[in-house]
Amino acid sequence: MASQDWFDKDFYKTLGVSKDVTDAELKKTYRKLARQFHPDSNPGDAAAEARFKEISEAYSVLSDKEQRKEYDQVRAMGSGARFTAGGPGQGGGFEDVFGGMFGQQGGGQRVRFGQGGAGGAGGFEDILGGMFGGGGGFGQTSGGYRGFGGPTKGRDVSASTTLDFATAIAGDTVKLSQGNGRPVNVRIPAGVADGQKIRLRGRGEPSPDGGEPGDLVVQVAVRKHPVFERDGLNLRVDVPVTFAEAALGATIEVPTLGGPTVKLRVAPGTPSGRILRVKGRGVTTKNGTGDLLASVMVAVPSHLNDKQREAVQALADALPDEDPRADLIAKARD
Question: How far apart are the first and last CA of the chain?
Answer without folding.
Answer: 79
